[in-house]
Amino acid sequence: MGCCGLTATCPVLCFTDKLTSASKDSLSTHTSPSQSPNSVHGSRRGSISSVSSVSSVLDEKDDDRIRCCTHCKDTLLKREQQIDEKEHTPDIVKLYEKLRLCMEKVDQKAPEYIRMAASLNAGETTYSLEHASDLRVEVQKVYELIDALSKKILTLGLNQDPPPHPNTLRLQRMIRYSATLFVQEKLLGLMSLPTREQFEELKKKRKQEMERKRILERQASET
């Protein structure tokens, strides 16, 4: 099989499968409106990931190749590159997904810590001082990760030539600003924990206060 002068060779089976799979998926997206986007996306990704790229099969035997001209080969390789780029997830998306996961973790853990800290500062023994201290360290580490991720997003592509589009840079600044506000607001709510000595004193005071209330209640019931 050949074309246009037969001046170059290309693998046939896996590469044509890759190109035709992408075309079929694109067609099915338009002809099957009842199919969910997730299922279409999953099908496309599955078909593409299940075959090898052109470069990875250059050592295949001659039976699995076709001969074609350089122009046709370049066209096929360009088409493959377009398919790969379509499946590529931009760095800013990957970093932002990690950032959102960290924020969700803070939204889950910070209220738990605040309850513990309030209880311990009141001299209550419902929670462990050590557990609360460990949780505080965990939350603070997530804050540090949020700060680092948002800084990385802010500086994405600044050393590239050409630089990112102005709208992209503005988006990166907005993400950094929002992350900074998030950390500042949440940190304000993280009350400090008592030291071990302070906690012992708080427990004594609470015990004395509870005893005083019981005495007053007993006296009130006797009169």
Write the layout of secondary structure elements.
Layout: E1 8-11, H1 13-31, H2 37-49, E2 65-68, H3 70-87, H4 91-121, H5 129-154, H6 166-188, H7 196-222
Protein name: Rabenosyn-5-like
Biased composition (Low complexity): 39-56
Region (Disordered): 25-56, 204-223
Count all strands and give the number. Answer: 2
Mean pLDDT, all residues = 78
How many angstroms does the end-to-end distance come to? Answer: 110 Å
Identify low-pLDDT runs: 31-51
Question: Treating each run of at least 4 consecutive H or I residues as one helix, how many helices?
Answer: 7
InterPro entries: Rab4/Rab5_effector
Organism: Leptonychotes weddellii (Weddell seal)
Protein name: Rabenosyn-5-like
Biased composition (Low complexity): 39-56
